Records
---
Amino acid sequence: MIPGIQQAIMNTLQYMLFYLIFSLPLTLSYRTTKVINFAHANFITYGAYVAIFLHGIMGLNIMSVAAILAFLITGAIAVLNNVLVFTPLQKRGSSPAIIMISSMGLWIAYKYLLYMTTDIAHYYTIKNFVSYGRITYSDVPRGSVGGVELSQAFVASLITASLVVVLLYLLLEKTKIGRAMRAVADNPSLAEISGIPKSFVVNLTWFICGGIAGIGGVIWTSFSGAITPEAGDSMILQVFTVGFIGGLVSLLRTGIGAVLIATIENVGIAILNTYFGVPVSFRPFLTFVTLITTLIVSPPLGAGGGLPYRFLKRGSRK
């Protein structure tokens, strides 16, 4: 019996739910817009800080209110990024690499903007917003299954992940706007010629994706012991690895990626630690190896790299 295996399994389930909530919008945004968006980490962090400012300044500990507000704010930030940065660059014919670098610039800018905001909030409230403790919410119950205690974070992330999966399925498969999103993802030029308002569809996609990641950030405040303006950054390796496993196009494969990475990071490292003495600090290394392997074997379409991709490209030129 592996010591602590029950806790490792519970952690696997918890992180799988978080990775689903964080990675599905990343895949959906890339599939529709073809932008590898590093500012995705900001959506998670800003969502968390909506809850933190509500709690720290107004004394509000209602997750549903924080989630709605975070959805609107981070969704609006995502649309703003597209309108002011990504779309102008695309209209100038900038390469995907340049647009990706611009998202890195946004990522850094938003991070230090938040640091400044937390400093200002600290000045007026004398509270430490740079490292904020876990929030206990009044509207999220704890649970128990088979004698196993379920935390507020687990209950909230289970409900949210289930809603995200079901609502995204209904949106993409059963609604007119969902079919328009799929058409823009498949062939944006043809979709535009067919009368689909591409600009509206792209902005709506950004709004939904930014909003979902923001809600995930709110839930993170009920899980993490210390939330900082780099909360989203600490998960960017896992979130992008999960998205890359899905090829940044398949929501189903992204879900499988969430299960895989959560299992590797928790059960996998527990097994390696027990039988081979591998330190648990090697956990991110396992994710990094998975990321590199994914990029080599099956790089996301349009993201370049990958040996098979290069060989195929070279062969097509002959």
Note: The CA atoms of residues 82 and 203 lie 7 Å apart.
---
Amino acid sequence: MAISFNNPRKKLLTSLGGLLHLSWPWRITIGYLSIMLLLPMAALLWMSATKDPSEFWRIATSPVALSAYDVTFVTAFVTALINGVFGTLIAWVLVRYDFPFKRIIDATIDLPFALPTAVAGLTIATVYSPAGWIGSLVAPFGIQIAFTRFGVGIAMLFISLPFVVRTVQPVLRELESEVEEAAWSLGASNSQTFWRIIIPQLISPILIGVALGFSRAVGEYGSIVIVASNIPFKDLIAPVLIFQRLEQYDYYGATVIGVVLLAVSLAILFAINLVQAWGRRYA
């Protein structure tokens, strides 16, 4: 019995001794990641485990929570895919073409990074409301954008666009034009050169941008709470549901929804990373 007790203790002491011999950059990295990332996640998981698992499951799978997951994750995934296409196109135009006000338009791409999310939501709601510039054009056809799930999608598109553009742009700049010229000299057409030479090299940055945009869209709150009506089973997203639970002093319910968001986000990011690894290996 003494051996089975001492061995884990000895291993623990050996591990702690190993940490003491790490260089200072390693110590600072581990300490910073522990305080800023690992401890908050551990606290969230610990708080969610304070009640019976059946209670956790009841809250996590309640109809209003399932509806909020659907609006949040499905809309974020679709908008990330849309930005994967149009973000790549925008990066292509900014890198391959020269035109007036190019630098101003290039700088405008970063606007969602700098603009407060509440201002973004107010701007989108103003433009896409039934009385707004764009909303008034589609309102006669019975289409409403703001204060519906479409509005949630517009807000997610707005805040996640820069992630694809800024990850694809540097790779496009580094592509060697000699490779494309060699393909043309061997008889390849422009479309064959694009799909067989250029796109394989862009798959990894596009996937990274899509993953970052998806993660950002899932966690968005400030703009969506303004542009959506926040009605359950209509356009209520999970982050707003968490806030509503907190307003009702239901801290455990908010924690359960937060744990589900954390678990699903990590699982999807892990899957996307596997796809990226596959792309780097076979592209």
Note: Confidence is low (pLDDT under 50) at residues 1-5.
---
Amino acid sequence: MKNNTTESYHSKTTEPAWAKEFESILNAYEQAGGNPEPLQNSNAAFLVVNANRVLSANEIPGVSFEAEELPNGVRAHIQVEAGTKLQKPVHLCFGMLPKEGEQQILANYDIGAGAEVKFLTHCTFPNAMKLKHIMDANVHVGPGATMIYNESHFHGKEGGIEVLPKTKVNVEENGTFITGFSLVHGRVGKLTFDYDVEVGKNGVAELTTKAYGLADDQIGVTETLHLNGYGARGLTKTRIAGRDDATSEVFTTAEGNAPHTKGHMDCTEIVRGKATASNLPKVVVKDESARVTHEAAIGSVNHKGLETLMARGLDEETAVDIIIRGMLK
């Protein structure tokens, strides 16, 4: 996005309709527990989207946005120039205020060689009754670059939302990609999470996914690591909790495709009431010096911890919630 385009987006926020929409989505984000201040700080890079409208964007040296408004979403290209090392995170805010509709975010992230950047992405859907949020992203982490990407969702209490994040990641030699996805505020609705990561020579990829399902929420998580380069390393860490009639299915795959690659899959799921959970890990090793491991645990909350909290005067449901949220921190 050129500077003049950035100015045009800023000018939109001065128009009453845009300004009101911008303020509304920031308020929704704040009420869900987020801090809207970075989304108004001219010293930080940020991009704010409601439905298919780019409400505000701010570029800083080394970080640029190209955003195109589509009929039902936004196509965005986020570029971090080679060698750029940011002290402050880049904030991305994607949301929808209406109760019904569809939002499709087509995103490309290009992190130049040697760059170091952290993204904080906030996805806010406070009023969802019949809403679909589709994220289709491609990520390129250049040689020696580091990208940290944390995405938090803030949903309402109705559960009328379908969330479909699908991301393909390519980590080049000596690159690092660390991501965290969290959906623990409000009802999940239906989540279909799909990450596919290829890691080059001496590269690193770490994926952490957390979700808390209630009522009839449905959680599906698929994570695949292709450790393709010499010495590549990868980790998937999945933490899921389900209560009531919620369901969760976790599919993780780690491939050690090159010499001295190391991969590990770690999955913990808690079920309560009639909730059900499953985990299916797949290990593939194509070199005798590669090492790929997995561990999984599915069960109820810790009874000793539950008794301790109830002895302090908490009712059982509150105590269970505290234990689960402790695991999801």
Note: Residues 2-8, 10-14 have pLDDT under 50 and may be disordered.
---
Amino acid sequence: MKPRVVTIIQARTGSSRLPNKVLLPLGGRTVLERMLERVRAARHAGTIVVATTSDAADDVLAALCRQIGAHCFRGHATDLLDRHYRAALAWQAEAVVKIPSDCPLIDPAVIDRVIGEYLEHAGTCDYVSNLHPASFPDGNDVEVMSRTALATAWREAHRDFEREHTTPFLWDQPQRFRLRNVSIDLPGNYAMSHRYTLDYAEDYALIRAVFDALHPRHPLFGVADILHLLEERPDLRRLNQRYLGVNWYRHHLDALHTIRPADTRLPDDPGKKYEPVTR
């Protein structure tokens, strides 16, 4: 029997690098609304829940969810593992999908591929993602886990980064948990050369430009459409070039067993001359 799938989108207004980023405008709506459109287009996403914090500052997100008819859960501000686990319990999830709200251009087909991989192997795997190793452009993060595996992490994970980032307790222990990965169907690795996740103002400039270029003729444009556009428009790729490959791994390389230094990097000097990244 197909497990009950619940997709949890973690969201908050208190981003230190780009405050209120999920409320920024994108094609006449908010970033969060545009992202929900794309997640809802995935056939396997199941019940979709926005998981925000119980802080008063995020009342606006709860109000937005009510306005647009989206499920909303409110939980711990910094313990994302606890927030995901309690949201999974509240919606009686059997398979838990984790997608961060900083992926407003995520491809619904990618979501379906990762969830489909989990469903195909349900009962014989604990965790599936497209991140270990990563090959898709940054901004297509999808992780799926059984609620049992999530509960184990919730009980046993104790380090701060394990609680803040929800899943490293699972994917960083391949000897203990049954893991699978989905890779892009194109030659090469785009994870360190293409970025449309939303963390910085420069990311927003790129995301808005891509959305405005592609959405009018194809509202659910995908990875291939974006890669084609960026090949034609190197000026767009330059917008957030200095943040390519920048992720949270860089802060915990000494503690993570399965992440290499080549899987992360620091932001470039903003004055550094741009050099095109070729595939």
Note: Residues 108 and 200 are 23 Å apart (CA to CA).
